[in-house]
Amino acid sequence: MKSTPYLRNLKILALSLGFTSVIAQIVYMREFATAFYGNEMSYAVILAAWLCGISMGSFALSRLAARIREPGRVLSVLLILKALMIPSGILAIRCVKVVLNIPTGQIMGMLPMIGSAFVLLMPVTVLLGAFFTLLCRWAETKKSEDTARQVGTIYIWESLGAGIGGILVSFVLILFFSGWTIAVLIGAVNLLILLLVLKRSYLAGYRIAFMLLLAVMVLSLAGGFEGMERWSRSVQWQGFQVVDVTESKYGNLALVQRSGAFSLYENGLLSFTTGDAFAAEDNVHFALLAHPHPRRVLLIGNGLNGSLGEVLKYPQTKVDYVELDARLLDFSKQHLPPAMLAALQDPRTKVIHSDARLYVKHSPVRYDVVLVNLSDPYTALLNRYYTLEFYQEVRAILNPQGILAFRVSSSENYINQEARAFLRSLNTTLKQVFGQVRVIPGDSNVFLASRDSKGLNLTADFFGRRLEQRQIQTQYVHAAYLPFRLNELRVNELKDILKTPGQINTDMRPIAFLYDITLWSTHFNSVFRNFMGRLQGLTFYPLLAIPVALFILGMLLTSRYRMLPVNLSIATTGFSEIIYQIIVILAFQVLYGYVYYKVGLIVTSFMIGLVSGGWLARRLSIQPRASLSAYYIRIQAGIMLYPFLLPFIFTVFRKSAFLGQGGGLLATLFAALPLAAGFMGGMQYVLAVNLGSKSLAGSQSTSGYSGLLYALDVLGSTVGALLAGAILIPLLGIDQVAYFCVVLNAVVLILILWKNKIWVVQ
């Protein structure tokens, strides 16, 4: 087809939409990850809110599309609004805890998390959804080519822009710029596009864009954006003195100070606070005192909270300290007083920069004690250190009398039902691997697991004698404190609670992750807690009522609504493919532990798949309706079969994911898994638009129908992100959720096959 100025402008605008959308999405996800304490469920919530807004914008414009006579004028307004709203959204995210009156460092409940994500993202995402439908309407008004093919062109170029933007933000922008700066830059790009593409037609928009772009340049030269960055960070960490904030490829690092103590937050979640002697002693001494001769210790995470120094109080002990992010230690060394870093310089300390799961799996060293010095499994990243698979890996590197120890939040006097489920899950999972498991009660429960079935003696007298024999000087774990901590009534009460078996926590079914989130929700409100309580007994088979109901509804309504099977397939594909992305995000976190670094690549690979599939479908769109329906059936079959492969692929990667050589390449390949899903989704959407244009015969405008399909696609994705990402995957596991998608898409395939004869005849 011969290129024209109009077609070039259409492609540029579609390209800019995809470019803007994916960069904004990735930057917002990273900013929300900090506001939501690195919880991977926040990715599902953010994707749901993002897609819901796009669906609303696209649907609203699809209803109004036929009435818009000058879509170019509306496009110019939307470009200006995008340039203003995207940077404003970054500032709003950083201020959200202040607005909600949530103290800095306090974990946000699920309902405030969901509400704030939807409210803050809605203005931007509604604009992005409306922009797509408006481009389709602009193509329809030109009538220079078949409208359905032009919609395919828009879809392809938008996806191409998303692929380019994803690569740019993942491998360049996030390494050199803050989220606020990136948002300002993409806002400026939108203004520049308005000047280049629409300036001749809409002089008012051109003038506004020119003035805004000039203001951006002046503020940048005057240092105004750096000042805004500092102000927003001070609001984000209200109540603390912000020492410094930086971005590592593994997360956002914020070092703050209050009352002489330094605290380092990684993705908003507390990593350590200097001078917290109680936590450091609690983490270390029970395990090291329980072992007869602790010569070699592995410390996983957060050594600068004082735990590393406590281990070194044992003169004959050497410690290997594993910390994934080298930037975290370098950042700490830049700002912390030398006295707080002395333990790192001790010749008995060896610092290892590696993923701890990778290190444990391939460690050439055998240890007497392994200390998991991390926070509760509030995230999938942390949960991977509380799973059956990890415990098996740790047991393999322990000496015969070796001990694994970790500490989780609890309560001294009353343990509610949510806490009981959480503690039982950890206890039962440990007992699958270790000969003896003991739990020390308190505000934090200390779990000790030994390979030796007779190796643990947890009495106050025993620990007191060991302290005296080894001449260990402590502030809190001492002879006067131990009888209170190991009170017989409290110890026996906890034993009785843990007699009841709990759910086993595994890599692919992170149930402790869900229990911990539910437990935290009890601090804020009872709605989410009660909801999750009712779902605890949910199994796979009752869930099949959803596809059965969908099938019955489809059979009843298909004869009345000609395109209903296509519409349903677009919605269920959106539902399924967002689940595939979330599954890859969570599985990547389980296998590799740094999804914050690769989330952009995961999103980008899906977009590249959309481009490829949309391009191929556009090439096929000139074929007869019967041929298009045949292609559509094959694509639906592929979407149905794809999740069958996911559990097998994860099993293969689980066996090879920890190989030292080539591990980075394997991680990149794993992150690119959504490419295939994106290809099928892109091809299906473009084929659906063409089938609709050939079947509706003027009963609905092509731009309106394409906007409707886009809205259904995104609406399905919204439901999938919230339902599966936030609930079903932790509750049922990745495998069963994948098989549910198989059944759901099989039902839609049957409806399409039954309806196909009507498409061919008509």
As a percent range, the share of strand residues is 5-15%
N/C terminus separation = 29 Å
Question: What is the level 1 CATH name of the largest domain?
Answer: Alpha Beta
The order of strands across the largest sheet is 7-6-5-8-9-11-10
Number of domains: 3
* Average pLDDT metric: 81
For CATH, the homologous superfamily of the largest domain is named as Vaccinia Virus protein VP39
**Helical content, roughly?**
55-70%
Instruction: Tell the overall outline.
Output: globular
Structural class: alpha/beta
Largest sheet: 7 strands, mixed
Number of DSSP-assigned strands: 11
Could you explain how this protein is built, in words?
With 762 residues, the protein is an alpha/beta fold. The protein has three domains: 1-239, Growth Hormone, Chain: A (Up-down Bundle); 269-521, Rossmann fold (3-Layer(aba) Sandwich), CATH 3.40.50.150; 538-762, Growth Hormone, Chain: A. 67% of the residues lie in helices and 9% in strands. It has 30 helices and eleven strands. The strands form two sheets. A seven-stranded mixed β-sheet has the order 7-6-5-8-9-11-10, with helices on both faces. A four-stranded antiparallel β-sheet has the order 1-2-3-4, covered by helices on one side. Helix 28 (674-696) runs antiparallel to helix 29. The longest helix is centred in the N-terminal third of the chain and has 33 residues, at 110-142. The chain is globular.
